[in-house]
Amino acid sequence: MPIQIGILGLGTVGTGVVKILQQNAEAIQTRTHCEINIKGILDRDLHREREVSGDFILTDQPEKILQDPEIDIIVEVMGGIEPARTFILEAFQHGKHVVTANKDLLALHGHELLDAADKAGKELHFEASVGGGIPIIATLKESLVANRITALIGIINGTTNYILTAMADQGRDYAEVLAEAQQLGYAEADPSSDVDGLDAARKLAILSSIAFNSRVALNDVFVEGISRITREDLAYAAELGCTIKLLAIAKHQEEGIEVRVHPAILPLTHPLASVNGVYNAIFVIGDAVGETMYYGRGAGSLPTGSAIVSDVMRIVNNIQANSTSPSNCTCYLELPLKAASDFHTAFYIRLLVKDEPRVLATLALLFAEANISFASIIQKPRGHHQAEIVLVTHPCREGSLQEALDSVKAYSKVLTIQNVIRFESGQGENP
Amino acid sequence: MPIQIGILGLGTVGTGVVKILQQNAEAIQTRTHCEINIKGILDRDLHREREVSGDFILTDQPEKILQDPEIDIIVEVMGGIEPARTFILEAFQHGKHVVTANKDLLALHGHELLDAADKAGKELHFEASVGGGIPIIATLKESLVANRITALIGIINGTTNYILTAMADQGRDYAEVLAEAQQLGYAEADPSSDVDGLDAARKLAILSSIAFNSRVALNDVFVEGISRITREDLAYAAELGCTIKLLAIAKHQEEGIEVRVHPAILPLTHPLASVNGVYNAIFVIGDAVGETMYYGRGAGSLPTGSAIVSDVMRIVNNIQANSTSPSNCTCYLELPLKAASDFHTAFYIRLLVKDEPRVLATLALLFAEANISFASIIQKPRGHHQAEIVLVTHPCREGSLQEALDSVKAYSKVLTIQNVIRFESGQGENP
């Protein structure tokens, strides 16, 4: 008896799922000892042209999929919050397992969906929601389950990594590279969800909830985007033996957990520094396993489809093994969340100042008053009796840095604070 | 009711397992909803000092562990072929699940052990046998299961990677770095299993069997070690924008599968090129997921223990879910194995020749007779009317290359063939 699945949505990802199930049908059947058949696909527009065809029902009526008693597994790849949320809840009510790639939905309503799955005694899998085909969810939930995860640092947004890589490699400006990325289809017409860090924040909420067994909501994530990064910042970073990446950082420390997405200056020697273009990677530190990293394409029809079909096969295996009582929700703890002012990092501060005596000395004093000292300083003449100064601080509290910056802003010899960027050593410890 | 485990062996890895089970006991219990208790440990010498202690029976009588009806899971971390093989078979006979880190045993007797597990309806897990704590086995078996794996390229021996990294970074000689690695404990007193490539070959036999669903025995793996690599080769590799790594390569091509372990010249831009020191990484290409990579410490007490305890927790979850009929053996196919003479790679050939006119032209003719052409050539004077020539061929059949080398050897102007090293583009395709 084949196991029947229903697919909600036939966009890029849904098409990838169908292609993989069709092209690798033989291998999939051999590996699961079972035929997996697509019984129906929900598609809003039944008349457009499609890349795939097959012996399945194409319908615009969700109940035909959700209420079909023969369908065991629902694959939700329509995206968006509603009606995806309602459909998934209905699927559980009708006794179906669910696989979804919907990060937006999970970051907002993951709790509700996991609870509904547990209540129904059905499985909810979502490997495809973060990092495309990179198996980061299974790794955190199963392969590293013996560890206390102390840090997770990810490059989990392909658009921003493409932009920063091109800016770094080619010395180009943000706006120019963004426009090119939009032309190439690597960035959307409205790129804000990517470049403002929101997409990465959603994924980080999902990853850190699993890594720390404690619910992290989207609102818990501190977020800063990449639009203020200039080619000058990337040139200075290179001078410091570093590069700039949009990092999604989650750390479990004694005082609690901190979760933040922001551009960060990262040493070139760190494995994440050579993750370029649209590739994603997640660096995970566990107390037993030490430093590990998982790398691959973070998006795309087939990579995302790979994760979805693997999740489907996992459910098929469990159905065949008569496995009971799945445990979907793994947030057993309620760990305190650190405030942004308590983050502890080193900072890069780029200032345009009047090129006069004693300016640097005064700056050093202003920072010293907030208990902040410098690890290195670069100063360059900028003409018109102006100089550009890059200050690299030793690690300090974010709150203290903000105080110091207030004094710096008020100092008449400072013309502009051009940028402030956090450092990340990538070592799991505060640097 | 706690689930009871028995551990065979209390060396480095066994100690790591005990430490993790003790230190992370609370997290482990929360995550499995179950207490995991070490009931007994088999140790040959009951009187030596140990790093760990606890409320377990320490015994030198295997039957006290293997025949204890309370014990559900046996962890085999004694290493070696016998008596480990017999103990594992006995464990299945007594209805126990088994977790092992024993790559030597699996590479030789994996088939027998997996069959015994299937017959007993028990689980056999061995994530720790390859890549320490890197979750490569679970990734191949589960997370990438929707894919047809086309290529797997690994740095899976820490000793050789430490040696080659130090040689490349510091321009030092093989013998000197090996001696240092032995002093630091990164290489054994008899380093042959590592430096001759056998350890990597064992791991590759395990990985490729899983990746291709077709049994690959140790004898099927073509093996060449690193002892002939010199600092000169590394310097030329750098000149070519490359480095040299001991790679474990498995490819699935139309004609069959090829599995080989040998030093290879790899472009510096490839993600594996920056895997340095004792770190391991496995680069996996799947038809759907594309290029992925898994990185971490390939050995050590706690990283290996992380994989073992995670495997134990996986079994505990399955016991609690009443999951039946595990499927351990995944070698459903019998794919043909390519002969070494049919390998298709580019080659680096370093020759010491008489510095006379027409030598290069004659060499080009000798290679052309075997249908081999050059992609690049480096020639340097070596004094005494001698020159060193490095020929980089276009990709060619290994058999043709051997024919050409026979003619080159017979050519009177060639004084020595100093080294021949394969290239690996790391792209999955033949370069």
Automatic annotation (TrEMBL), chains A, B:
NADP(+) binds at L8, G9, L10, G11, T12, V13, G14, T15. SUPFAM superfamilies: ACT-like, Glyceraldehyde-3-phosphate dehydrogenase-like, C-terminal domain, NAD(P)-binding Rossmann-fold domains. The keyword Amino-acid biosynthesis applies. CDD domains: ACT_HSDH-Hom. The keyword Oxidoreductase applies. The active site is at K203 (proton donor). Belongs to the homoserine dehydrogenase family. Signal peptide: none annotated. This is Homoserine dehydrogenase. Its EC number is 1.1.1.3. Its cofactor is a metal cation. Residues 348-422 form the ACT domain. Pathway: Amino-acid biosynthesis; L-methionine biosynthesis via de novo pathway; L-homoserine from L-aspartate: step 3/3; Amino-acid biosynthesis; L-threonine biosynthesis; L-threonine from L-aspartate: step 3/5. GO terms for molecular function: homoserine dehydrogenase activity; metal ion binding; NADP binding. NADPH binds at K103. InterPro entries: ACT-like_dom_sf, ACT_dom, Asp/hSer_DH_NAD-bd, HDH, HDH_cat, HDH_CS, NAD(P)-bd_dom_sf. It catalyses: L-homoserine + NADP(+) = L-aspartate 4-semialdehyde + NADPH + H(+). Keywords: Amino-acid biosynthesis, Metal-binding, Methionine biosynthesis, NAD, NADP, Oxidoreductase, Sodium, Threonine biosynthesis. PANTHER family: HOMOSERINE DEHYDROGENASE. One of its GO terms (biological process) is methionine biosynthetic process. L-homoserine binds at E188.
